[in-house]
Q: What sequence folds into this?
């Protein structure tokens, strides 16, 4: 069964600190892996998209890594800000070109405390 | 428009009533998706529209659920005879052409509460 598992479920860090969120997947075939940020009451917003051949991708203070061999990904947030408080969702795309069949993780809820 | 727009933002209904949710995708986006997000769970795929092709309805949970899209614009998701288990946030997303590595743009969702 195609699954995406994220850890931890929730995390509290102090403003200015770094953190790393984990994602393991069993989706096959694999097309790409995405990280989304979802603020409370809003839709998810794309942070990064990585294909099989990409090991790392950055978007400002967000850096995602992908190990396609072990089927693991991580999202590293540097110098956290209060506005980083949100749910971070790992999503794996499985399917032929032309149709996106996305498998969503349940997210890691991050709270950045002042 | 500037982004994906969904309405209403909140809907409270009584069990057994029909509801209609609306999605306005980003202008020019040919691909449109509906997802359901239950509390504490990951997004579940419901239906996918791509241009004038037949929609992929493989995610619709029952025949009480249906969706339509007019050309490459507005889409409506209809839930008939609502049940309490239908309570969730219904999210719509669009993308330029539905190809593999495109970014999806989500609306803010409709929070549906069935009493």
A:
């Amino acid at each position: 069964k195609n699954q995406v598992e994220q850890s931890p479920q929730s995390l509290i860090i102090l403003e200015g600190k770094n953190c790393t969120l984990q994602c393991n997947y069993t989706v096959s075939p694999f097309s790409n892996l995405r990280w989304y940020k979802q603020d409370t009451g809003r839709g998810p917003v794309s942070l990064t998209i990585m294909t099989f051949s990409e090991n790392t991708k950055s978007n400002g203070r967000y850096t995602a890594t992908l190990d396609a061999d072990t089927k693991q990904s991580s999202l590293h947030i540097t110098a956290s800000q209060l506005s980083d408080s949100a749910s971070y969702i790992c999503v794996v795309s499985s399917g032929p070109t032309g149709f996106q069949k996305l498998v969503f993780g349940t997210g890691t809820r991050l709270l950045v405390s002042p | 428009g500037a982004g994906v727009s969904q309405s209403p933002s909140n809907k409270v209904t009584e069990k057994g009533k029909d509801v209609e949710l609306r999605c306005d995708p980003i202008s020019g986006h040919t691909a449109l998706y509906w997802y359901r997000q239950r509390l504490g769970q990951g997004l579940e795929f419901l239906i996918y529209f791509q241009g004038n092709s037949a929609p992929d309805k493989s995610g619709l949970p029952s025949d009480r659920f249906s969706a339509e899209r007019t050309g490459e614009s507005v889409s409506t998701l209809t839930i008939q005879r609502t049940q309490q288990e239908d309570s969730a946030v219904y999210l719509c997303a669009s993308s330029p052409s539905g190809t593999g590595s495109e970014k999806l743009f989500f609306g803010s969702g409709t929070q549906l509460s069935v009493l």
Chain A touches chain B through 26 residues (CB under 8 Å). The two ends of chain A are 41 Å apart (CA to CA).
